[in-house]
Amino acid sequence: MEEFKKKIKDRIKLCTVYCSSAGLLSFLLNFLTNGTNDFSRGIVMGVFCSTELVSIVMIVYLSLALKDEKKLKDMYIKSTDERNLAISKETMRTASVISLMALAIAVIVSGFFSVTVSLTLFAVLLTDTFITCAVKLYYNRKM
Question: What is the 3-state secondary structure (H, E, C) of 52-86?
């Protein structure tokens, strides 16, 4: 249980570092996206602000769990439960296959409308396939 508490504290530290560097990141994002259109700047700032908000929520949630032994124990059981781990593995495997198939279909369909979009989606498909294969090789060697 002490190791789990250490893991929780490390997550809190990571979120705190992200939150404390928010001002610098915001300045850099505004500086780097200065010449782009408003839509793109809005997307970048929206993603940044939402990850900032999620980090703050995680800090509060994890801090409250550290103070309450029952919540901490429930979190530990939930994170180490074999059934939950098996469900998570199957979910990720199935989601990965469905995502790759949907992306392949999107590459084909977008080819009829825009070559640029089709090639971009194809690059994403290749990257996703590479990542999936690399992770599988890693776990084949690890386990």
Answer: HHHHHHHHHHHHHHHHCHHHHHHHHHHHHCHHHHH
Q: What angle (nearest 5°) sits at the alpha carbon of residue 125, between those of residues 121 and 126?
A: 120
CA distance 47 to 9: 25
Residue 82 CA to residue 86 CA, distance in Å, equals 6
What's the pLDDT tens digit per position in 86-141? 888 888 889 989 999 999 999 999 999 999 999 999 999 999 999 988 988 998 88
Cβ atoms of residues 66 and 5 within 8 Å? yes
The one-letter code for the residue type at 12 is I
Between CA 34 and CA 43 the distance in angstroms is 13
- Residues 24, 4: Cα–Cα separation, whole Å: 31
Helix H segments across 1-143?
2-20, 22-32, 38-67, 69-80, 82-110, 115-142
